[in-house]
Please model this.
Amino acid sequence: MTPHAPFLRRPGTQLTLRYIVAIALTLFFIFPVYWLFIISFKTPDEIFAFPPVWYPESIQFANYRVLFKDGDAETVWNSLILAGVSTVIAMVLGTICAYSLVRFKTGGENLAVWIISQRMMPPIAIAFPIFLLYVFFGWVDSFHGLIILYTAFSLPYVIWMMRGYIEDLPLELEESALVDGCTRWEVLWKVVFPMVRSGLFATAVFTFVFAWNDFLFALVLTRTEVITYTVQVTHYFGGQSNFWAKIAAMSVLGTIPVFFTVATLQRYLVRGISMGAVKG
Amino acid sequence: MADLKITNLHKHYGGVQAVRGIDLEVASGEFTVLVGPSGCGKSTLLRTIAGLETPDGGTLEIAGKVVNYVRPRDRDIAMVFQNYALYPYMNVFENIAFGLRARKTPQAEVETRVKRAAGMLGITQLLDRLPRQLSGGQRQRVAIGRAIVRNARLFLFDEPLSNLDAQLRDEMRSEIKRLHQELGTTMIYVTHDQIEAMTLADRIVLLRDGRIEQVGTPLDLYERPATRFVAGFLGSPQMNFIPAQLAQSGGGWAVKVGDGTSLALPARARDGLSDGRAIVLGLRPQHLTRANGSSRPGHQRLGVTVELVQPTGSRAYITFPLGGVPTVAELESHDVQRPGEQIDVDVDMNRAVLIDPETNRVI
Model:
């Protein structure tokens, strides 16, 4: 008869323990998200009920209906435009800059480091000067104002990331394209962009999420025209009471675009993140 | 007319002189091989011809037009790279068609030309595959296909076979030679492999330290090397170099090596022979054979003790001391059995090379 391993060392026990820990951790992190979603579907009575209502009797969309009726939901659309447009501009400009840094050694050794150092500055430190500047230009409360700002903030990150991806590209691919009849711009478009596609998507997701989640500049630089959803949510925190239903519903609306972006691009995201890390 | 004319070309990277004053003309339809050890400037020279590097001095003419500052795409060249440089996200067809599409060739013509090129290389059945689904040899065929489909004036090859294993390399070498015969295009081929250079070239350009050491047909360089470097670079196993002295003997000249062995030189006009002059005697292993029967004119018989035997199949390389230097001879494998054997070696002094030890030039 073969001797038994101690209870805790048996493969079956180990696996069970691992599952228990994993499930517990997952529940711990998922629960707040679940609670947010579930509140958005509750009636005011259910929200304040004690003991808490873990799941509502019936799903009702009244909280969402109010947001759309009052036009509050439009702020999600605003955020989408701001984050989307600034991401596209930052990705295109940033990749071109990164290509120039890598292939033409633009700015020598140190320009790239200087560029990324701009990202390390605390945004609050320049919030006030930027506000004054924007008042002067008349850019406050405008789409283009925030788009320019988000683009400027994302560029260092995009340049830094794309520089890493482009450095990993074999030079021969580009040289071959040059000999075969491409201009530099065509090389960029036909060789570099397709080759760094995973990196482009991964970087774009993070750039998008940064602009999407921005609260500080949206708060300082908007008034009534271009309110983003992050600012809108704070409007529901009142002096006397908080509109939990609206807060939850608005937050869910704000989560959905990011959720879908990441879900669709997940394939590229994982590959892109690891692509820069592991050099072949 | 020369397809390519290079005059006093210079190129440096920082403080390193990669190419220092190269003059070269390549005739139309010629297969020229640039060969030399790593760091000799052969790849830099090729890249400068391609336009991937800009020369620092001198002129570069393609078809009679100075192209020093002409972009690669306007030079009418095609290039095959060492690492194939295939686009991983395109299938074989699109990879081959890339250059044609970049030049806005009509779709119907793209189809015909890609299929013809694929047919020539025997890769028609691979047109739908992606590069990662191909073997090394197949990838190199695609890379060559991408070059030949363009009908360029000048074909450049940058060590195209060095990533392949030995057997495939032999196969692709014949393939490239056959392609050159079929297409008749001017080809410039860079390699560090002397076998590739010898077998492929109409003309070899042997480079060293950014300068041309010697230019000529493969046999020219093999049989009439201009310098010790050329003599040592071409041929395998390498030529033996034995320090020696010239001596007058009878009516002619003889070479005396360190241990007192004297080898008579066949009568041939040579400049600068003087009694007692120090020289280096160059003997190819192929010109040292097992002595049998009567010796022919210019041949000498030498009794040696075999120190080392390296059989290669049909041939065997043996090592014996001559003038204090380990000397290699290539014999028939049944000519010698084991180390320690005493044999007579026939030295073909007709093909011996005398080198001035100071200038390293052949006398």
Observations:
- Chain A is about 75% helix and 0% strand.
- Chain A has two domains: 7-65, 66-273.
- Chain A touches chain B at residues 170, 172-173, 175-183, 186, 190-191, 194-195, 197 (CB under 8 Å).
